[in-house]
């Protein structure tokens, strides 16, 4: 079974631009969570989607948004990019909404110049 | 909100020695505790997890213990090998399904 895939793997943007990252969960998984990983703040939860509905949201500004499609694929969008948004963005999927193992993708490395 | 503290931040051992990483959590509602290993350029990979109704769990050279009263849990790796070198993260999940709160990570180096 294929793992979690994320595209693109690397991205360079300039301040003020917007970016969209994509995540395809493991087949049969309906829950997708997004995390931001930086050297200073570590791994921080952004939001979680289950059955196309955002069920949880972390402490990030409204510039960070996401959505989930009927096939469970998910996208996250960051508008008006800031230098501090440079990070590794990870998505993780699991089978359902209950407490289960989250399987992570390889991440998208975003550099904001 | 939930807070997870992880120690030590770096750990250096000789091949064959044991390694122990400890975490404490703040939210008494937390009841799921996974451990992840992250190698350079890769996403975190689950190595073992434990739920609050269990005190200890083992999988070959890896074991995790949980003390709910004291709100701490630990990862034990025995007979370490150079390929165990990586960054290890503990995490907790409570009533906010899908939200893992991570510790700051431990850089484990196993010297041949």
Description:
- The complex is a heterodimer of chains A (113) and B (112).
- Chain A has no helices and eleven strands.
- Chain A is an all-beta fold and 113 residues long.
- The radius of gyration of chain A is 13 Å and the shape is globular.
- Chain A starts with a strand and ends with a strand.
- Chain B is mainly beta and 112 residues long.
- Helix content of chain B is 0%, strand content 54%.
- Chain B contains no helices and eleven strands.
- In chain B, strands 2, 4, 5, 9, 10 and 11 form a six-stranded mixed sheet that branches. A five-stranded antiparallel sheet of chain B has the order 1-3-8-7-6, with no helix packed on it.
- Chain B is globular and about 40 Å long.
- Chain A binds chain B through residues 4, 31, 33, 35, 42-45, 48, 50, 55-56, 58-59, 90, 92, 94, 97-99, 101-107, and chain B through 1, 31-32, 34, 36, 41-46, 49, 51, 89, 91, 93, 96-105.
Which protein chains are joined by the largest interface, and how many residues does each one contribute?
Answer: A-B, 27 and 26 residues
Give me the count of strands of chain B: 11
Structural class of chain B: mainly beta
For this structure, the quaternary state is heterodimer
Mean pLDDT of chain A: 95
Q: Total helix count of chain B?
A: 0
- How much strand of chain B? over 45%
Q: How helical, in percent, are the residues of chain A?
A: under 10%
Computed Rg of chain A: 13 Å
Q: List low-confidence stretches of chain A.
A: none
Which outline of chain B best applies?
globular
Q: Number of helical segments of chain A?
A: 0
What is the average per-residue confidence, as pLDDT of chain B, rounded to a whole number?
95
